[in-house]
């Protein structure tokens, strides 16, 4: 649960999420999937529902280096007509080096 007040408007975000992860090949390859749903309330009125999906994978290279991929899909469904409903798809590639 998350609560926020901005310009005298009280906003509350509540909802469950679950993450499942697995390591392969002596922890060289890591994969995870997260699924969540949140309800957003403004002034105690339901404003929108939000589906969140995220899949990640990373692979360990030599010397403390790691490369990663992430794909996330977000679907916002408005209950009130203040904003449009939308679906957003994001992808990210990463490189990390520990020293």
Compact overview of the structure:
The protein is an all-beta fold.
Structure classification: mainly beta
Task: State the helix count.
Answer: 0
Number of separate structural domains:
1
**Helix content range:** under 10%
**Distance between termini?**
37 Å
Task: Kindly list the characteristics that best describe this protein.
single chain, 76% strand, mainly beta, 99 residues, 7-stranded antiparallel beta sheet, elongated
Explain the layout of strands and helices.
Blueprint: E1 2-6, E2 9-14, E3 17-24, E4 29-42, E5 45-60, E6 65-78, E7 86-97
What can you see in these coordinates?
With 99 residues, this protein is mostly beta strands. The chain has one domain. 0% of the residues lie in helices and 76% in strands. It has no helices and 7 strands. The protein has strands at residues 2-6, 9-14, 17-24, 29-42, 45-60, 65-78, 86-97. Strands 1, 2, 3, 4, 5, 6 and 7 form a 7-stranded antiparallel sheet that branches. A hairpin with a 4-residue loop joins strand 5 and strand 6. The chain is elongated and about 50 Å long. The mean pLDDT is 90.
């Amino acid at each position: 649960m998350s609560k926020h007040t901005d310009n005298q408007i009280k906003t509350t975000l509540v909802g469950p999420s679950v993450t499942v992860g697995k390591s392969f090949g002596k922890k060289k390859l890591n994969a995870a999937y997260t699924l969540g749903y949140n309800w957003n309330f403004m002034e105690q009125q339901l404003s929108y529902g939000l589906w969140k999906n995220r899949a990640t994978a990373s692979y360990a290279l030599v010397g403390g280096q790691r490369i990663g991929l992430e794909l996330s899909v977000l679907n916002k469904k408005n209950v009130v007509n203040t904003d449009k409903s939308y679906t957003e798809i994001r992808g990210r590639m990463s490189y990390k080096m520990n020293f």
